[in-house]
Design goal:
The chain is built from four helices and 25 strands. It is an alpha/beta fold. It folds into two domains: 2-139, UDP N-Acetylglucosamine Acyltransferase, domain 1 (3 Solenoid), CATH 2.160.10.10; 198-249, Udp N-acetylglucosamine O-acyltransferase, Domain 2 (Up-down Bundle). The strands form three sheets. It has an eleven-stranded mixed beta sheet. An eight-stranded parallel beta sheet has the order 2-4-6-9-12-15-18-21, with no helix packed on it. Helix 2 runs antiparallel to helix 3. The protein is elongated, with a radius of gyration of 20 Å.
């Protein structure tokens, strides 16, 4: 085990021999680290935090810290992190609250760029990117393969769908459609299918064309959402079915 002499590891913390703990890091007594994690320097791991294997924590990130919720009274809530994540400088991840389910989750293979924030009780999937200073309020859900652009705040309770791409500086106050490109100048709008991102993820041209037909009905036609959904049900493909289900489950409404 490589532990710098200036690091402080509380009794009770689980730190495997394969981990590297750099200078001035602090690890709380209820933290459990997986194999081959790297804490570069000045990293804070606190609370009931369970971390998978091969995660890299860059300087001044704070993980599992108490939630920014005035109702929080020190209840034993958790933060759970998967494998192979890169967590860059100044990232903050709050643990959960009793009212929100008690657990903040981050999946695997994610990139959290500098100064990103994951608030209490958020559920972030795998293969996601949060760019610099992307900010998730409490109770936000980010589904797999989604990207949240730099300086984009996501309102509490919102859901960002699978494979969605949110442009930098976008204020998100409603659910973001899966597969979509969503951005804003003054008002947030969906701008069709994230075709480049889907191609990079291995989507075939037929799958992309099917989604483009669905998005034309939803965004470009003069149909209202209910009418567009009826027409979309005539289209084939699991991706279109996923899109329809997302819209039907939305509680905050979707950005169109």
């Amino acid at each position: 085990m490589s532990i710098h002499p200036s690091a402080v590891i509380a009794p009770g913390a689980v730190v495997p021999d394969s981990c590297t703990v750099g200078p001035f890091c602090t690890i709380g007594p209820e933290v459990v680290l997986g194999e081959q994690c790297v804490l570069i320097s000045h990293v804070v791991l606190d609370g009931r935090t369970r971390i998978g294997a091969r995660n890299t924590f860059h300087p001044f990130c704070a993980i599992g810290i108490s939630p920014q919720d005035l109702k929080y009274r020190g209840e034993p809530t958790e933060a759970v992190i998967g494998d192979d994540n890169t967590i860059r400088e100044n990232v903050t991840i709050s643990r959960g609250t009793v009212g929100g389910g008690g657990v903040t989750r981050l999946g695997s293979n994610c990139l959290l760029m500098a100064s990103a924030h994951i608030g209490h009780d958020c559920q972030v999937g795998s293969n996601c990117i949060l760019a610099n200073a992307a900010t998730l309020a409490g109770h936000v859900t980010i589904e797999d393969y989604a990207t949240v652009g730099a300086f984009s705040p996501v309102h509490q309770g919102c859901t960002v769908g699978k494979y969605a791409f949110i442009g930098g500086g976008t204020i998100v106050t409603q659910d973001v459609l899966p597969f979509s490109k969503t951005s804003s100048r003054r008002e947030s709008k969906a701008f069709g299918v994230n075709s480049v991102g889907l191609e990079r993820r291995g989507f075939t041209p037929d799958r992309i064309r099917s989604l483009q037909r669905a998005f034309r009905l939803l965004l470009v036609s003069k149909l209202n959402t209910t009418q567009a959904l009826e027409k979309m049900r005539e289209l084939e493909g699991e991706d279109v079915a996923l899109l329809i289900g997302f819209i039907e489950r939305s509680h905050r409404g979707v950005i169109k």
